[in-house]
Amino acid sequence: MRERQIVFLSERKVRDELCRVGIPRPATTLSGEIALNPKLTISRAPRTPVPQSEGADLPYLFERAERYVQGLSRPFTDPDVSPWDWVSFDVPMGFCKGGRDGRVPAVHDIALFAGVLSEETTGQNKPVKLLLCGDSKHLTIGGVQPISPENPLGAGWMGSGTTWLYKLIRHLEDSREDGSDEVPAVLRDPNIHRRGFNDPEQVAHWVYRYIARDHPEGQDGQLTGYAQVLLRTEREEWPERLVLATPLYVERTHTKRGMWLRRQRRYRRQTA
User: Do strands 39-42 and 74-75 pair parallel, antiparallel, or not at all (unpaired)?
Assistant: First the structure.
């Protein structure tokens, strides 16, 4: 028996992935919210098969989904990842709530995580940044603050021109509710790779920098988990690659916070 400090867990993705391997979706689900303590207890004792009913408990379903996704995933730093691939991560990250740019009062209905691994760590020629996005109702810990909490009007805004990313996150959540896992049309649009002001690839980098720099104090640490890739950005003139993904879950590891701070300071020196 061990406890796991889960920061974010998408029950919808857990149940969706199990449907793919033959475990029927239970007749009822939790009422739109994760009814889960952040310290999720996982039993390692032998279990009987999951009943095909609402009696299938979430911790066991989570463990099954985790094993399934683990077999499909590759590190997010893999240069060949593409949309809808499963990736793993274990990286220092900052996190916060956010919302659509320009909405007053601000509504903090999305969760955002930002982290980076240096080229020395990955053995590649560029650092690789990871931006995770999902619905804030899947955050399992209380007290998560929005970006810029000292500004009540701007709290949670991702910055100018970021409506594209907000709409993408909301589309993903809505499509999951309908049982669809199609790549959103906005990601198939060739204009997504156009150059110019507010193109989506550039927006993803802006939002990443905003969260990595301005997330509230204490909302960071060494985080691990699995996510599905939405977008991978790389241009010759950019000093970094970025992977945008939506997480199955995000979990705290036991790495001391000081390591995150040292890596963050080193990265800022490199990119100053």
Answer: unpaired
42 SS3 class: strand
What phi and psi values does residue 11 have, to the nearest 5 degrees?
Answer: -60, -35
3-state secondary structure of 193: helix
* Among 268, 252, 266, CA closest to 218: 252
Each residue's pLDDT tens digit in the chain (272 positions)?
567 899 999 988 887 777 766 655 444 333 333 334 455 544 333 333 333 434 457 788 888 889 999 999 999 999 999 988 999 999 999 999 998 876 777 788 999 999 999 888 878 889 999 999 999 999 998 889 988 777 766 777 787 778 888 888 888 888 766 666 666 676 666 666 666 656 788 889 989 998 999 899 899 999 999 999 998 988 888 889 999 999 999 999 865 445 545 555 554 555 54
- Identity of residue 144: V
Q: Distance (Å, rounded) from C-alpha 186 to C-alpha 190?
A: 9
Beta strand 220-233 pairing with 86-98: antiparallel
At position 97, the amino acid (one-letter code) is: K
DSSP per position, 86-152: EEEEEEEEEEEEEB-TT-SS----EEEEEEEE-HHHHTSSS-EEEEEEEEGGGB-STTPPBSSTT-T
